[in-house]
Amino acid sequence: MNKINEKHFGLRVDGDILAKFRYVCGFKGRSANAQIIQLMLKCIAEYEKEHGKITLE
Predict the structure, then answer these.
(1) Angle at which helices 15-28 and 32-51 cross, to 10°
(2) Mean pLDDT, residues 6-21
(3) Could you tell me if 32 and 24 are in contact, meaning their C-beta atoms sit under 8 angstroms apart?
């Protein structure tokens, strides 16, 4: 990831969901942030596979 292009993203989430998510992240050896990025990349890849590459202006 390019630090110059790195953005902060706030997220409101139920405490129980966050605790369970962090548990799963620990099992996978990732931070919550790293796991969220992986989930975002998977979501983007699935979208692009169905609809074509997203181009940013």
Answers:
(1) 90
(2) 95
(3) no
User: Which two three-digit tokens encode residue 57?
Assistant: 């202006």
Closest to 37 (Cα-Cα) out of 4, 9, 3, 16: 9
Say what the pLDDT of residue 5 is: 86
- Sketch the domain layout of the chain as residue ranges: 31-57
Closest CA to 24 of 41, 42, 36, 9: 36
In this predicted structure, the answer to whether residue 37 has a pLDDT above a threshold of 80 is yes
> Average pLDDT for residues 23-40, to the nearest whole number?
95
